[in-house]
Amino acid sequence: MPEGHSVHRIARQFQRNFVGSRVTVSSPQGRFAEGAARLDGRVITAAHAVGKQMFLEFDDGLWLRIHLGLYGAWDFAGEIVMDLPEASVLDAAGENSLRSIGAPRRARLRMSEDDRVTDAPVVFPADPVGQVRVRLLSDTVVADLRGPTACEVLDPQQVETAILRLGPDPELDNSDAARDRFTNAVLRKPTPIARLLMDQSVVSGIGNVYRAEMLFRARLNPHTPGKTLSLSAARELWADWGFLLHTGIETGQMMTRHDLVGPAIAKAMRNRADRHWVYKREGLPCRVCGTHIVLEEMAARKLYWCPQCQA
Hints:
By secondary structure, the chain is an alpha+beta fold. It has helices at 4-17, 33-39, 156-164, 176-187, 193-196, 208-217, 231-251, 263-270, and strands at residues 24-26, 44-50, 53-58, 63-67, 73-79, 106-111, 117-118, 132-137, 141-146, 150-154, 294-298, 301-305. Strands 1-8-9-5-6-7 form a six-stranded antiparallel β-sheet. Helix 4 (176-187) packs across helix 7 (231-251). The radius of gyration is 20 Å and the shape is globular.
């Protein structure tokens, strides 16, 4: 499932390429035909990400809410334009950083957890391929949405209600108030911290990768009840999430190791296996203590951790 950094990057893509444009909205698949008809011909006026959800505002006061879930992804084609940091890279597996979105060009671009990209020229706009739930088409760019968990038209009050259900997102609000909202939610619950970090009502945007890596970076046992954490430990988790989220947005990569310097950083940015402390390293020796990394299931999700460093 795309984690918070991916959704923020997709929102940036819409901000740069769609905001201010009048769009044709359709549902080639047919499942969103009614919603598409309500938005068709309107101007997109804003694009916001909150955790794993994105909200597109239209000039008639309606909003499109999208939650990609496990299988959702956006494909973009046309004259794609993006402001990109020079440090961004494309890894060996094809995972796309911000740079690979590139300067104005003809391209097809997939934005999901893996952000696969193909540079082959295409006819614009190409016919929809596969089960496209929503197609947004401007004069220069087309965005196709496939397989989302949620895709619905909301009015402003419904948008406010949906956002209020979500925990704080440090990329949107890194204030003391947002931090305290997170720490208060954690410190009053007996729920294991590994489950709390995945609870989108507690904090927005954290998924399986960031959950495992944050707990290792904090040397926290994932089964620790939230209410037994110290205030400083809870605050450090919040600060670390803000740091990792911003890094992911800017680089396009889920870089969670802080022990790398020089060429090792470049190598890790190009190879996902070098980027993490524990995620998908079950049975391999811990990079710190040598103990084999453990894989277990918690709330139907895979949990990776070191039983020594996180004892």
